Amino acid sequence: MNRQEFEHIIRACGAATSRKELLIVGSQAILGSVPDSRRDLRVSLELDVSPIPFSEEAVAIIDGNIGELSQFHKNFHIYAHAVGPDTATVPEDYRTRLVTVTVGGVSAHCVSPADLAYSKLAAGREKDMEFVAGLLHHKIVRQVGASEANRGLKALADASEITGLPRDNFEIHEISKVEFERLRA
After folding, report:
1. Average pLDDT of the segment spanning 137-146
2. What is the DSSP string of 38-85?
3. What per-residue confidence (pLDDT) applies to 154?
4. 158/128: higher pLDDT
5. Per-residue pLDDT at 183 exceeds 70
6. Phi/psi at 12 (nearest 5 deg)?
7. Averaged over 107-127, what is the pLDDT?
8. Quick count: other Cβ atoms within 10 Å of Cβ 31?
9. Model pTM greater than 0.85?
10. 3-class secondary-structure state, position 86
């Protein structure tokens, strides 16, 4: 999925549900913060979307009209997956770091890269570990020494298996856009 496809799904979800706000979780939330994300971070064809305010009716509309195996999916080869607002494991204060992208009058509040890494590490699947390794490799997030208890998530130590970094306590931190561009150069 690329940024244009990401925006297409946001517009479609807004139009189908008449919702003006969405919460974007899952790997493709990276497109809210880093529109030109590297290809290895954009492999998913699905955008995890939670309607705001949340309702089962809106979930059914999204999944039925824009979801997997829908006509939208068949036509555009991308789709929305409607989820609940508590689907992703994120820090309690994640809302303070949401990145908002407004498309066609719909505000899509995307989980920040640091919170996305946290969520992926909590899920602990191989594909999630590879995604976090990509975030680290592309310097979208960085690893710094800290007490594991700071974030209260043991899964952070498991990332060492993918990254090759020591299994010492570590924490994922977001970096500024200026620092990101400097590191990418």
Report:
1. 73
2. -GGG---SEEEEEEES--HHHHHHHHHHTSTTSHHHHHHS-EEEE--T
3. 42
4. 128
5. no
6. -65, -40
7. 92
8. 26
9. no
10. coil
Q: Are strands 79-82 and 46-52 parallel, antiparallel or unpaired?
A: parallel
How is residue 42 written in tokens?
């954009």
Query: Of 151, 116, 152, which Cα lies nearest the Cα of 42?
Result: 116
CB 163 within 8 A of CB 143: yes
- Structure token digits, residue 82: 């409607």
CA distance 49 to 29: 9
Two structure tokens written together for 7: 């925006």
Structure tokens at 146: 């800290």
Q: What residues contact residue 116 under an 8 Å CB cut-off, 6+ apart?
A: 25, 27, 29, 30, 135
For residues 58 and 69, is the Cβ–Cβ distance under 8 A? no
Q: In which residue are the tokens 């919460």 written? A: 23
Distances (CA, A) of 140 to 24, 28, 129, 182: 18, 14, 15, 11
Q: Give the residue extent of every domain in the chain.
A: 3-111, 114-184
Q: How far apart are CA 30 and CA 4, in angstroms?
A: 13
Length of the chain: 185
Q: Quick: pLDDT tens for 55-114.
A: 999 999 999 999 999 999 999 999 999 999 999 999 888 999 999 999 999 999 999 999
Contact 142, 175 (CB under 8 A): yes
